[in-house]
Each structure stands twice: as structure tokens, then as C-alpha cells.
Design goal:
The chain is mostly helical and about 325 residues long. The chain has 2 domains: about 150 residues, Cytochrome Bc1 Complex, Chain D, domain 2; about 140 residues, Cytochrome c-like domain (Cytochrome Bc1 Complex, Chain D, domain 2). It has 14 helices and 2 strands. A two-stranded antiparallel ribbon has the order 1-2. Helix 3 crosses helix 9 and helix 11 packs across helix 14. The longest helix is centred in the N-terminal third of the chain and has 22 residues. It is globular and about 60 Å long. The chain binds heme C (HEC) (2 copies). One heme C binds next to helix 13.
Length: about 325
């Protein structure tokens, strides 16, 4: 009897906990992410960054905003094989999610940039993306009264590259998605995941996936070679940074959070579905030089494949969308 009452209490406490969690506002969560000492977040700074993120004037012909390739409705991706920039030009790669980017230890598929602040200028100046030039862009944005006013109030300076990069990075860090069924399950709500999802989680942990996609962010943040191609062709990954042949085929491990929303997959969007991705690993990769030794062939029944895909679906949390009403899918 004694044992039974304590079980009831636990369940009850669990109930209260879940209640508290569902009341939690995004503001409460923003306190928990890391940020550089020279870019303390504030609601106003995030708001300025948000306005700039959705502003098509950041591209040369005013046709494309960051949000066109990083669309909130698709977990801040674009569902294209490779992204499309100004004048229908094709970017080289598939757009990654920006959710939980506050936790990134390295930025870009080449894992070569240290901060989100450093990344902002890259797409703006990339000919196949926004095709702009900071020398022309800064005076143009400074002439927008709301931007110049915010720069003065928040940064005590004229609108410049510092203001642009700090505010957009602050906005990106505020994009949190950490309340998936998986997270609720791990916090003790055993009903948050279905039995298929729980079975899939066992498989995910028993296979070698966690070597590179460990919880809680489902990435080790490192560049790895997952054996996608025998010959990587034009895009040899991190190799292009230092021209070191040991880096051929190395790409930063993407997070698996919200993965069911961010298809197609891989740096070049070459795999369309999660079934195709699992097929790649089942075969043990294509064995290029440098392929990680953990990636070996394995077998799964049709049912087990379904469980694994179900588990990946338990990593979806679209609660962030309430801040992006007009973008809801
Ligand atoms: C034309 C489409 C396009 C536009 C516009 C664009 N991006 Fe991207 N973004 C991409 C692609 C493609 C990548 C992957 C590039 C790579 O890793 O080599 C990327 C990568 C990123 C990353 C790295 C994420 C990670 O996991 O490492 C961040 C951050 C980012 N973009 C933010 C922005 C911001 C901020 C803007 C606007 C100033 C922007 N992007 C505009 C397509 C775009
Ligand atoms: C050696 C490290 C490593 C291991 C082990 C590994 N992955 Fe990956 N995974 C990667 C890398 C690196 C990429 C991105 C490759 C690219 O873009 O070309 C990736 C991409 C993915 C993607 C697509 C992500 C996206 O946004 O495009 C999925 C899904 C995935 N892996 C699932 C798994 C599963 C399931 C397992 C276990 C069966 C696994 N991975 C094992 C490194 C690894």
C-alpha cells in the first residue's frame, strides 16, 4: 500500500510538471541559451533582428530575404534541393534549419565559422544568394528611419555592419525548439511518445547514430564524413576551406531536431525522404576515403524502419511557430 501511494504522488507530481511546462512562455526559455559576451540579447534587439531577417532589401534586387531560404513554416529551411538566390541563381547547398542555432559550436556545413555574428555577411555578399555588397547595403539600411532609430537606441551608434550582424544573430538565437514529444518524454511524461516512437528510440541508441547525432541537440557539431558518395564531385565539403585532402567529404553533422520538416536531406538535398536516409546508412555508406569507421551495414525489418522514422518524428516541436503566425504552414 505504501508503495502504491508514492507511485500515485509521482504521477500527480508529473502532472503538475507537465502543466508548468505547457505554461512556459518563450521568454522563460530565452534565459537558457548561450550568447557571446558582446551580444547580450534583449527583446528590442531580437525584434530589430527579426525585421532585418524578413527584409528583402538585404538582397541586391530586393527580391529575397533571409526568411525566403529559412522559412519559419519549414523549420527555417526552404524545402528545395539547393536554395535559390537572386535572379533564379542556384546556391551550392541545401539550407539548414536555424532552430536551436544558439547552441551551434560551429556554423555552416564546413564547420569553419565560430559565431552566428560572423555568418550574417556571407549570404548577403554571396553572388548566388543575396548578391549584395556591404558598402552599398549599409547606407541604404541607415536611411530607413526605424532601423537608424533602433541602432541609436540599442547600440548607441549609427546603423552599421555591427548593428546588422549583432541584431540578426540575437534574433537567430531566440529561435528555440526544445519541447518535442521526445523532450516531454525525457522530462518524465511517459505518454508523450507513442510505442512506435519508443521502439525507434531504442534502435536509434543501439545503432551507431548517437556517435555523431547525440542528444540533446542530435549533433556533435563536428564535421564528419558519413560516406554519402564515392566521389564528392564539385562539393568536397570542408576540404574547400584549407584544401586539406583529409577533409574531403566532411560536412558538419546536422541536428536531427525537426528533421521530418526539413527535407530534402544532406548538404546537397540529394536524399528526399527519411527512408532514403536510412537506406544510405543500412548499406553502410559508399566507403569513400575518410568515411567514419562507425558507419557499417546493418539490417532492419520493415517494421523496425518504420519505428526509426517514427522516433525521428518525435523530435518535432513547432511551438516556435506561434511567434510566426502568418508563416504557419
Ligand atoms: C539563397 C538562400 C539563402 C539566403 C537568402 C540565406 N541563406 Fe542562410 N543558408 C543557405 C544555405 C544554402 C546554407 C548552407 C551553406 C553552407 O553551409 O555552406 C545556409 C546556412 C546558414 C547558416 C548556418 C547554419 C548552420 O547550421 O551552420 C545560418 C546561421 C544562416 N544560413 C543564416 C542566414 C541569414 C541570417 C541570412 C540572411 C542575412 C541567410 N541565411 C540568407 C541559404 C540561404
Ligand atoms: C560519422 C558520423 C555520423 C553517423 C554515425 C551518423 N550520421 Fe547522420 N549525418 C552525418 C553527417 C555528416 C550528415 C550530413 C552529411 C551531408 O550533408 O552530406 C548526416 C546527415 C543525416 C541526416 C540528414 C540531415 C539533414 O538535415 O539533411 C539524417 C536524417 C541522419 N544523418 C540520420 C542518421 C541516422 C539515423 C544515423 C544512424 C543510423 C546516422 N545519421 C549516423 C553524420 C553521421
Amino acid at each position: 500500500m505504501h508503495h502504491l501511494t508514492s507511485v500515485i504522488k509521482l504521477v500527480f507530481l508529473g502532472g503538475i510538471f507537465i502543466l508548468l511546462c505547457s505554461c512556459e512562455s518563450p521568454e522563460d526559455l530565452t534565459k537558457e541559451y548561450p550568447f557571446p559576451s558582446d551580444n547580450q540579447p534583449s527583446a528590442e534587439k531580437i525584434e530589430l533582428g527579426r525585421a532585418l531577417f524578413f527584409d528583402k532589401r538585404l538582397s541586391l534586387d530586393e527580391s529575397i530575404a533571409c526568411a525566403d531560404c529559412h522559412n519559419p513554416a519549414y523549420a527555417f529551411t526552404d524545402r528545395k534541393t539547393v536554395s535559390e538566390g537572386i535572379q533564379g541563381k542556384h546556391a551550392e547547398r541545401n539550407a539548414p534549419t536555424l532552430l536551436n542555432s544558439a547552441f551551434l559550436q560551429t556554423v555552416m556545413f564546413d564547420a569553419h565559422l565560430k559565431t552566428l555574428e560572423l555568418q550574417v555577411i556571407v549570404p548577403i555578399q554571396e553572388a548566388t544568394e543575396m548578391g549584395h555588397n556591404m558598402k552599398l547595403l549599409i547606407p541604404k539600411l541607415r536611411a530607413v528611419p526605424a532601423y537608424q532609430k533602433a541602432a541609436k537606441i540599442l547600440f548607441n551608434r549609427d546603423f552599421d555592419a555591427w548593428v546588422l550582424t549583432r541584431s540578426i544573430a540575437a534574433f537567430e538565437r531566440s529561435l528555440l525548439s526544445l519541447n518535442s514529444p521526445y523532450d516531454q518524454f525525457m522530462r518524465g511524461n511517459k505518454r508523450a511518445m507513442t510505442s512506435d516512437q519508443r521502439a525507434g528510440m531504442k534502435l536509434f541508441n543501439a545503432l551507431y547514430c548517437t556517435t555523431c547525432h547525440p542528444a540533446p541537440y542530435f549533433t556533435n557539431f563536428k564535421a564528419e564524413n558519413n560516406g554519402l558518395y564515392t566521389d564528392y564531385g564539385n562539393d568536397k565539403g570542408r576540404f574547400r576551406i584549407n584544401l586539406d585532402s583529409a577533409d574531403i567529404g566532411f560536412f558538419k553533422t546536422p541536428t536531427l531536431r525537426n528533421i521530418e520538416l526539413t527535407y530534402p536531406y544532406m548538404h546537397d538535398g540529394s536524399l528526399k525522404t527519411l527512408d532514403e536516409v536510412i537506406g544510405h546508412y543500412l548499406a553502410g555508406g559508399k566507403h569513400p576515403k575518410g568515411q567514419h569507421p562507425s558507419i557499417l551495414p546493418f539490417q532492419l525489418t520493415t517494421k523496425e524502419k518504420k519505428h526509426l522514422v517514427s522516433f525521428l518524428g518525435a523530435l518535432t516541436d513547432t511551438s516556435y511557430l506561434k511567434n510566426f503566425q502568418s508563416y504557419a504552414p
